[in-house]
Amino acid sequence: MAGEEIIQGVYLIGGSGCSHSQDAAVSLIACEEHLVMIDAGAGKGTRKIEENIRELGFDPGDISALILTHCHVDHIGSALYFREISGCTIIAHDLDALAIETGDPYLTAAHWYGTRLPQTPVDRRLTQEHETLGLGSDTIHLLHTPGHTPGSIVAYLDRAGKRVLFGQDIHGPFSREFNSDIGQWRTSMERLLGLEADILCEGHFGTYEPKAEVERYIRGYLDQYAGEYP
């Protein structure tokens, strides 16, 4: 699979079905003359992700920003490669940035995958609950949603009359090894429900729409973990 258009100018370009089995979902957003990537796979499907971008008619060298939703290697393993070929700005939350920059094998869960994360610079560290990335007429919203990791974020934008949410690891998992906090996660999920997104691009389990399906998916995990304590 070369890539899939989710909605006008928003594409799935990586993941277990279209790049490598270890890759979490990788998305591409075309914003006028800019390209934005959300996450970058585990590092073993790099060439296939690059090929998918080209097959969609885009130049990977035009990527201007790469948003890392959290510090786990299955989401960020190819980030350094794409920074090197495009000069893009890597964006991540400050609370996960140190793990990304040092390649910590435990905080990045790299040892789970039998791999190593190269030390990857973070060019823009997010520190606020809500920040934005403006590219031409598009605004990509970046929300701090701690729980899975301390610096987990989501991104969303409004496109073609619909709100598209890049929720990634809404489902967890949770581990003391990478400082998960289920209490914080519950609060984060309530914030996401308040966005009333029409489309959810999740990190491992596909794309969900319409709005009722997005809500059902998020509430399903809130119910699943209802008996768990922070």
Q: What oligomeric state best describes the polypeptide chains here?
A: single chain
Low-confidence regions: none
Radius of gyration: 16 Å
Identify the CATH architecture: 4-Layer Sandwich
What is CATH's topology name? Metallo-beta-lactamase, Chain A
Q: What overall form do the CA principal axes indicate?
A: globular
The total count of helices amounts to 6
Count of the domains:
1
Describe the structure.
The protein is an alpha/beta fold and 230 residues long. It has a single domain (4-224), classed as 4-Layer Sandwich (Metallo-beta-lactamase, Chain A), CATH 3.60.15. It has six helices and 13 strands. It has helices at 46-55, 73-76, 79-86, 94-102, 182-195, 211-224, and strands at 4-7, 10-14, 26-31, 34-38, 63-67, 89-93, 124-126, 130-135, 138-144, 153-159, 162-168, 199-202, 206-208. The strands form two sheets. The chain has a seven-stranded mixed beta sheet. The longest helix is centred in the C-terminal third of the chain and has 14 residues, at 182-195. It is globular, with a radius of gyration of 16 Å. The N and C termini lie far apart (40 Å). The mean pLDDT is 95.
